[in-house]
Amino acid sequence: MFEGLMILIVCGGDDPGGAQLRRFGAEAGLLIAADRGARYCLAAGLAPDVVVGDMDSLAPVELDELAGRGARLVRHRPDKDQTDSQLAVDLALEQSPASICLLGAAGDRLDHSLANIHLLLRAARRGVAARLITGAGDELFLVGGEFELTSCAGRTVSILPFAGRASGVTLEGFRYPLNEAVMEPWEPYGVSNVIESARAVIRVRAGWLLIMLLRPDLA
Amino acid sequence: MFEGLMILIVCGGDDPGGAQLRRFGAEAGLLIAADRGARYCLAAGLAPDVVVGDMDSLAPVELDELAGRGARLVRHRPDKDQTDSQLAVDLALEQSPASICLLGAAGDRLDHSLANIHLLLRAARRGVAARLITGAGDELFLVGGEFELTSCAGRTVSILPFAGRASGVTLEGFRYPLNEAVMEPWEPYGVSNVIESARAVIRVRAGWLLIMLLRPDLA
After folding, report:
1. 3-state secondary structure of B203
2. Which residue in chain A has the smallest CA separation from B121?
3. pLDDT above 90 covers what percent of chain B?
4. What is the number of CB-based contacts under 8 A between chain A and chain B?
5. Sign of CA dihedral A137, A143, A149, A153
6. Cα–Cα dist B29/A170, whole Å
7. What's the CATH number where B31 sits?
8. Residue of B86, B165, B175, B186 to mutate, interface with A, max A Cβ within 10 Å
9. Is A218 a domain residue?
10. Model ipTM value
């Protein structure tokens, strides 16, 4: 889908499950696990290249197994300012990847899910395309500028302004199109739009849009 | 907790369950159900004062029962710009309440959860204190200005800038205090703070903070 290095980051939220991990793991040039995410990798038969975090969610026997399978362990102190996911994203950005994919980054803890969405902006500001795939298969990513969606006709998509006002918002190929619209944070009217064309375009002149592309089977 | 009219809005996300509905229902001066939320109310033995939405999630027999129990039904067409939750919040704001509480507003659909968090800003800009309680009992609200938390010592709280940069951020009575800090949207370092004092203060000079107060039993 993308040219260049894709880095998969497996976070310690809800377990993405073996099928999802192996599917995205097969595309990834580098696999980074954030703390408990390493456990999900091992259970799926994947060996992370790097494990980062305070390691407070991993048992000594797991750390031994990870090291034995060649993982580099990057341990931070527990009272750090960053979440384990942020440490993983920063480590990934050091490799200048073309894209980053976050799994296990959404789930029960809504605060962690939201913080992980903020990490998409951390990557985007560095010019790195980043997306977060929920356990259900919903795909979240940010658009600042222009983005083309292909082969997504029929899929439901929600669009919200992220980190402030988004202006000059144009949606082409959607059931509810927009033309140079302003989306204010207190006016979340972009929920449950539908892609109608084989080629749909999202454009924003100022600000960021959070795109939530729902899993294909969800009308 | 608050003086004046408290309006409870029950949305159509995950079912908050009877115990939570009855607890908050008892405090509310007005109960508004957004579409499917009305079903949750009926199951909990509560009759909404108003049901608003496109009614596409409710069966005719449920609509009859709601009307029979005195609910005002405010039906909108399905291809509206607003979500059912937004219609409910706008209806609530017309009553000039002191506060609004949203239940059933978070759950499986992350896009709906996020849009509902944006609705907190819709209320806050009108000077109405609004909070969203997740099914797990986590409490989300926005602070623009100053807010005092009492009787919350020991509870975990996550703080993120909302809708852009937050500056002049001061946290007193927290394990990780801040003093006139700037929180950028790409730097989500406010996750998993802990309240340490019987009286904790959150202050922000410009921008908005999203406060996520985790349920009491969650360390």
Report:
1. strand
2. A186
3. 89
4. 112
5. positive
6. 42
7. 3.40.50.10240
8. B186
9. no
10. 0.94
CATH of the domain at B165: 2.60.120.320
- How many other CB atoms are there within 10 angstroms of residue B217's CB atom? 8
CB contact under 8 A, B187 and A122: yes
- What does DSSP assign to residue B90? H
Residues A45 and A98 in one domain: yes
The answer to whether residue B36 sits within a structural domain is yes
> Could you tell me if B103 and B24 are in contact, meaning their C-beta atoms sit under 8 angstroms apart?
yes
CA distances from B120 to A14, A62, A78, B123, B160 (A): 26, 42, 32, 5, 14
Asked if residues B57 and B40 have their Cβ atoms less than 8 Å apart, the reply is: no
Q: What is the pLDDT of residues B99-121, one digit of tens each?
A: 999 999 998 789 999 999 999 99
| Single-letter code of the amino acid located at A63 | L
Q: Please write the tens of the pLDDT for every residue from B147-199.
A: 999 999 999 999 999 999 999 999 999 999 999 999 999 998 899 999 999 99
First to last CA, chain B: 24
Neighbours of A60 (CB within 10 A): 8
CB A219 within 8 A of CB B152: no
Identify whether the C-beta of residue B54 lies closer than 8 Å to the C-beta of residue B79.
Answer: no
Alpha-carbon torsion B159, B162, B165, B167, what sign? Answer: negative
